[in-house]
Design brief:
This protein is α/β, with parallel strands linked by helices and about 600 residues long. It is built from 23 helices and 20 strands. Helix 1 links the parallel strand 1 and strand 2.
Length: about 600
C-alpha cells in the first residue's frame, strides 16, 4: 500500500512536525512518504506531483492557513484518482467534524485530534478488513452518512518514536526552521485559543529530548523552534533544559520558545542573564491585552506587574531577543483600550511587537459564545473578526494600518534610531505615530505596491514633511540608519547632501593626513583619498551623534559624521568628529 502524508506550509522554511510524527509512529509496519509544499505553490503543480507518487492513501495536515488551498488540491486529486483514499487531520478539521465531512465530500476520512495511533490503526483496517468503526478518533461516512467514532485516549508521549531523524530531512536542516516539542497541552483556558481545550500538560522523555536536540545540532539545524504552549510551566524542567542547551550549543544555532512571562521565576531569569550567550535564545510572549477586564472575559490569568518584571529583566540582561504578541478584537476591548494596550507593550522597547487580529477558531469557547459580544467574523478561514459591540469594522481597518507600518518599519528594524526619536520626541505615543503614518500610507496607495529599502525612507520623509515634522535632526538620524544598514557605500538617493564636492575633497584630504584624530582603529586602515572616496560616506550633522546614540540626548554641535565600509567585512563602522576640532587642528598647522 502506497501511503503519502502531505501539507501546505505557509513558507518553504517552515516544516510540518505532524507529518513526521505520523511517519515515525506508522513505521516500520507501514512505509509513509512525506510531501511538503507551500500555499504559494500552484494547486495544479501540487496535484501533479502527488499524482506521480500513485498514493493508495493520501493524508493532509490541515490548519487555518492552508485549508482553503488544500480543498482545491483534494478536489482535483479525487477527479483524477478517485480510488485514492483521502484522509484529513489537524486542528482545523478536528472540530465541527460533521461540517467538514459535508463541506469536503471528496475527503473520505478525518482523524480527530491527536493522530499518531488513530492514523496507524486506520492504515491497519484500511489494508485489512476495513472495520472503520473500530478506529477510535476516526470520522467517516457509513452508508453515506457522517459517522464520528468515540475519541481516543491521550497518547503516552514516552512511547512515541522520534520524528527528527529522517534521512530525507538532514540536508535541509540548516535551511529550514525545525519545529520541536517537549510537551503537549496547556495549563491555561484562554477562550480564544485551541490549546485551552486539552486539559493538562504531558511531557516527552527528557533524555530522548536531549538526544534528539544533540542530533539535530550535529546535523546542521540552525533554528529550532519549541512549540510547547508554555515552555516554562515547570521551573525545574525549564531550568534544566536551558542549562543543557547552553552547555551543548553549537555555533550559529538559535532556540525559540513560547513562554508565559508572569510565571517566569526570577532565579531562572538571573541564570539566563548570567550564563546564556547573546543571541542563543529568543522568547515569544503572548501579552494579548493589558486590560484586566478583557482578560477576565476570556478566562486569561495574567499578572501584568510580574510580566513587566520578567520582560524588563530579560531586556536589561541583553542576552535574549523578545517578541511580544497582541490581539486586537478581544471582548470589550474598544479602540481606545487597544491603543493603551499597544502603548503599554511598546513601552518595553522589545525587539518585536506582533499585532494580530482575533480569529474565531472552531472549537474555542469564544466562538461558541460569540453572540454575547455581537461578533461578526469571516465564514471561512482564517475566521478573522469583522467587528463586535465595541469595535467597528472601521476601527479594525484603522488598526490594520497600524499593523502594516509596524511590520515594515519596527519589526524589520529598518530605522530603529529614527523611530525611537519620532515615537518619544515627536508624537504623543507609539500608537499615534503608527496610526497617523499608516493612515497616510493608505491614502497614498502604498499598501498596494512593493517597496525597496530606499522607498521606505523616502516615504517616511514625505509623511513627516507634509506633517511639518521633518527637520535636520530627523534627516540626520534617518541617514545614519540608512547608511548603517548598507554593505557598500550607497549612491545618492532620497536624502539631501550636506556637503559640496569641494567640501568632500577638503575633508578627504584632512582625514588622510589625520586619521588618528578619528580613532586608532581608523588610523590602522591607512586609507588613501581614493579609498576614502570609494568606501566612506561623509555627512554634516547639527548635533553630537555619538553622544545621542549613547545617552539619547541632543547636544547641539556641528559634527562630521563618517561611515566606513571595510571592503573585507562589509560591516559599516561609524565615526564622528566635531568641526571645531578639525578647524582647531587646521589652525595649529598654519
Amino acid at each position: 500500500m502506497n501511503i503519502v502524508v502531505s501539507t501546505l506550509n505557509a513558507k518553504y522554511i517552515h516544516t510540518c512536525l505532524a507529518l513526521r510524527y505520523l511517519k515515525a509512529y506508522s513505521e516500520p509496519d507501514f512505509h509513509v512518504e512525506m510531501a511538503e509544499y507551500t500555499i504559494k505553490d500552484p494547486a495544479i503543480n501540487i496535484v501533479s506531483d502527488l499524482y506521480m507518487k500513485k498514493p493508495d492513501v493520501l493524508g493532509f495536515s490541515c490548519y487555518i492557513w492552508n485549508i482553503e488551498e488544500t480543498i482545491k488540491v483534494i478536489e482535483m486529486i479525487k477527479k483524477i484518482s478517485p480510488q485514492t483514499a483521502i484522509v484529513l487531520g489537524g486542528p482545523e478539521v478536528s472540530y465541527d467534524v460533521a461540517h467538514w465531512l459535508d463541506r469536503i465530500p471528496d475527503a473520505d476520512f478525518i482523524i480527530v485530534n491527536e493522530g499518531e495511533i488513530s492514523f496507524k490503526h486506520f492504515l491497519t483496517e484500511h489494508s485489512g478488513e476495513q472495520r472503520y468503526e473500530k478506529v477510535a478518533g476516526l470520522a467517516w461516512r457509513k452508508d453515506g452518512k457522517p459517522t464520528i467514532n468515540p475519541p481516543r485516549e491521550k497518547l503516552d508521549l514516552k512511547t512515541v518514536a522520534t520524528p527528527y531523524r529522517f534521512e530525507e530531512d538532514l540536508d535541509q536542516l540548516s535551511k529550514r526552521v525545525t519545529y520541536f516539542e517537549t510537551s503537549r497541552g496547556c495549563p491555561y483556558s484562554c477562550a480564544f485559543c485551541l490549546s485551552s481545550i486539552e486539559v493538562g500538560v504531558r511531557y516527552f522523555d527528557i533524555q530522548k529530548v536531549k538526544d534528539d536536540l544533540i542530533f539535530l545540532m550535529d546535523n546542521g539545524a540552525k533554528t529550532i523552534k519549541f512549540v510547547d504552549r508554555t515552555f516554562n510551566i515547570k521551573r525545574d524542567y525549564a531550568l534544566e533544559m536551558f542549562q543543557f542547551l547552553i552547555e551543548n550549543r553549537r555555533p550559529g544555532v538559535v532556540f525559540q520558545f513560547e513562554i508565559t512571562a508572569d510565571i517566569m521565576r526570577p532565579e531562572v531569569i538571573a541564570f539566563l542573564n548570567e550564563h546564556a550567550p547573546v543571541g542563543l535564545f529568543r522568547f515569544e510572549i503572548g501579552v494579548q491585552s493589558t486590560n484586566d477586564h478583557v482578560n477576565e472575559l476570556v478566562q486569561r490569568r495574567q499578572n501584568f506587574e510580574k510580566l513587566t518584571r520578567t520582560v524588563m529583566t530579560v531586556k536589561e540582561g541583553g542576552k535574549i531577543a523578545q517578541h511580544l504578541d497582541l490581539i486586537a478584537g478581544l471582548p470589550e476591548e474598544d479602540y481606545n483600550s487597544f491603543r493603551k494596550t499597544f502603548n503599554d507593550v511598546f513601552a518595553f522597547g522589545v525587539e518585536e511587537v506582533q499585532l494580530g487580529f482575533l480569529k474565531m477558531l472552531r472549537g474555542t469557547g469564544l466562538r461558541l459564545t460569540a453572540d454575547r459580544h455581537d461578533y461578526t467574523y469571516m465564514n471561512h478561514s482564517p475566521y478573522e473578526i469583522l467587528g463586535n459591540n465595541v469595535l467597528s469594522f472601521n476601527d479594525i481597518i484603522k488598526i490594520k494600518r497600524v499593523e502594516d507600518v509596524l511590520e515594515k518599519y519596527w519589526n524589520d528594524h529598518r530605522m530603529d534610531t529614527t523611530l525611537n526619536y519620532l515615537i518619544y520626541q515627536v508624537f504623543d505615543s507609539p500608537f499615534d505615530f503608527f496610526q497617523e503614518f499608516g493612515d497616510y500610507w493608505e491614502s497614498k496607495g502604498w499598501s498596494r505596491i512593493g517597496h525597496q529599502l530606499e522607498d521606505l525612507f523616502a516615504r517616511l520623509k514625505e509623511f513627516l514633511t507634509q506633517r511639518g515634522s521633518h527637520n535636520e535632526i530627523i534627516e540626520a538620524l534617518m541617514k545614519y540608519d540608512y547608511f548603517s544598514r548598507k554593505k557598500h557605500r550607497p549612491h545618492r538617493s532620497w536624502w539631501e547632501e550636506t556637503l559640496l564636492k569641494s567640501d568632500l575633497e577638503h575633508y578627504h584630504r584632512w582625514l588622510k593626513h589625520h586619521p588618528e584624530r578619528i580613532s586608532d582603529t581608523f588610523k590602522s586602515y591607512s586609507l588613501s583619498e581614493k579609498d576614502l572616496m570609494k568606501h566612506t560616506v561623509l555627512d554634516l550633522v547639527p548635533f553630537d551623534l555619538n553622544y545621542y546614540l549613547t545617552t539619547g540626548e541632543i547636544k547641539k554641535d556641528q559634527v562630521l559624521s563618517l561611515i566606513y565600509y571595510p571592503p573585507k567585512t562589509h560591516e559599516p563602522e561609524h565615526y564622528s568628529i566635531s568641526l571645531d576640532q578639525i578647524e582647531l587642528e587646521e589652525r595649529s598647522l598654519l
